[in-house]
Amino acid sequence: MEPRNNTRLLEFVLLGFSQDPDLQPVLCGLFLSMYLITVVGNLLIILAIILDANLHTPMYFFLSNLSFVDICLTSTIVPKMLVNIQTKRKTITYADCITQMYFFLLFVELDSFLLAVMAYDRYVAICHPLHYTSIMNRRLCGFLVLVSWIVSVLHALLQSMMVLRLSFCKDLEIPHFFCELNQLAQLACSDTFLNDVVMYFALVLLATVALSGILYSYSKIVSSIRAISTARGKYKAFSTCASHLCLVLLFYCTGLSVYLSSAASHSSQASATASVMYTVITPMLNPFIYSLRNQDVKRALKRILVGKL
């Protein structure tokens, strides 16, 4: 099969979850509902943090950034999928596919780094409470978010440029609901050895850095909590990081399930189904986790909603 070098004419086919026409309206309604809940929920979190002066702290500053990234992540994937279901056309152009892949990598990486930054914030708050305000000042908070953006942008750009060097053949069916990096590499007719090396090395390196930061922070947090003498003091200290810990477990467990499921079953369909967890469901649940477990956020949201009514 000869490679096709005129990439401007290429179109990929996103196979999605099911070819059953009777199931398409159900999928469309389900994903539209989850998308709207994700956008509205995260926008309310951002609005509450902006309007409530009590939430102008480093923890909520990072949370507002995480909510914004979650909106962008789902908006990168779900609208195109909904359009394809409604129009019954599963195609996506080469340029749109590369663009979607770029922004997906960008926002997933940002999610990972922001969770690590939030873990560091909780570590300082619990382990060094007397120096919290001096350590977690505005300059450091802005610097941590800026570095997260810069590293994520460069990583997504590197991976996208590596895909641009590949040539593709006529069989351009992607057994996924979005343009996923690994699936694109598997469709290439040209040699992908260098792509595979860069892809796995960069992903493992960055994921390891973020996860190591989270594990180190929580190891110190656990040590500090164990040193507290009273049960009430332990509960109070743990409650300050419980919401964030839920987000970390949800994000990494669902993300890890994608690779474990695809490796165990060697099924792209299984990988696509597992990907829904951290690309759609996790961003949808984040606002609920923080609003249900955090009294400050609940009060701020109540004031906003009552004021609107």
Topology (elements, then pairings):
Layout: E1 11-14, H1 24-51, H2 58-87, E2 91-93, H3 94-127, H4 132-135, H5 138-164, E3 173-174, H6 181-187, H7 193-227, H8 231-265, H9 268-293, H10 295-308
Parallel strand pairs: 1-3
Antiparallel strand pairs: 1-2
Task: Please give the oligomerization state of what you see.
Answer: single chain
SSE ordering: EHHEHHHEHHHHH
How big a fraction of the residues is strand?
A: under 5%
Structural class: mainly alpha
Amino- and carboxy-terminal Cα gap: 63 Å
Written account of the structure:
By secondary structure, this protein is an all-alpha fold. It has a single domain, classed as Rhodopsin 7-helix transmembrane proteins (Rhopdopsin 7-helix transmembrane proteins, Up-down Bundle), CATH 1.20.1070.10. Helix content is 78%, strand content 3%. The chain is built from 10 helices and 3 strands, in the order E-H-H-E-H-H-H-E-H-H-H-H-H. It has helices at 24-51, 58-87, 94-127, 132-135, 138-164, 181-187, 193-227, 231-265, 268-293, 295-308, and strands at 11-14, 91-93, 173-174. A 3-stranded mixed beta sheet has the order 2-1-3. Helix 1 (24-51) packs parallel to helix 9. The chain is globular and about 65 Å long. The mean pLDDT is 84.
Notable features of this structure?
3 strands; globular; mainly alpha; Rhopdopsin 7-helix transmembrane proteins; 309 residues
Put the structure in a nutshell.
The protein is mainly alpha-helical and 309 residues long. 78% of the residues lie in helices and 3% in strands.
